[in-house]
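Quick one, tokens below:
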């Protein structure tokens, strides 16, 4: 699997689980025009890309300053990735309350909040993307990160369009299926990281 495809699949598994960002987009698509729903998705996408870049390169800078931390990050990261994946498989999808239409300014501010003022997203992003960053060479990082960022673009636009199109048929069962699939993929990558960690110990 190329590093671009690896980043693409990991990125999809990372952004697709039903969290605050996705619920924000789903509620917008269920209660607004399709044009407004897509605008909301693009706003969330901007904040998500900035968070992904910060998580990916931030942990890399730490590795440059403190090389011995690399093994700790890789080991702990692999276990946390497995924990995240298992949690998604066990989680029950829940819908939020009634969505109230927002002004553009409020949409931007709340999109920023559900992305950047979200400790779980920052922690998951840092450990997930950061753990992979330490396993990639400089030439491998660009295609991998390109795949991750493209995954965000594809997913948020797809999710907004899908919910707008089938808003009357969207059910918690679909959300549950998404969580199970994405949790399984993340667990697979967690095992890969754990194998890399074990290989460096030997």
């Amino acid at each position: 699997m190329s590093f671009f495809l690896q980043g693409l699949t990991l990125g999809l598994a990372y952004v697709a689980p039903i969290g605050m960002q996705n619920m924000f987009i789903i509620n917008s698509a269920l209660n607004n025009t399709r044009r407004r729903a897509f605008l909301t998705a693009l706003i969330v996408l901007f904040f998500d890309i900035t968070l992904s870049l910060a998580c990916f390169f931030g942990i890399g800078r730490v590795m440059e300053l403190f090389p011995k931390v690399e093994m700790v990050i890789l080991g702990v990261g692999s276990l946390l990735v497995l924990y995240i994946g298992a949690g998604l498989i066990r989680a029950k999808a829940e819908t939020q309350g009634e969505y109230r239409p927002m002004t553009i300014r409020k949409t931007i501010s709340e999109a920023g909040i559900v992305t950047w003022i979200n400790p779980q997203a920052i922690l998951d992003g840092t450990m997930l993307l950061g753990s992979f960053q330490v396993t990639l060479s400089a030439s491998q990082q660009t295609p991998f990160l390109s795949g991750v960022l493209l995954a965000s673009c594809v997913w948020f636009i797809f999710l907004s369009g899908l919910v707008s199109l089938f808003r009357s048929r969207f059910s918690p069962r679909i959300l549950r299926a998404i969580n199970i699939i994405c949790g399984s993929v993340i667990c697979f990558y967690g095992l890969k990281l754990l194998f890399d960690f074990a290989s460096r110990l030997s």
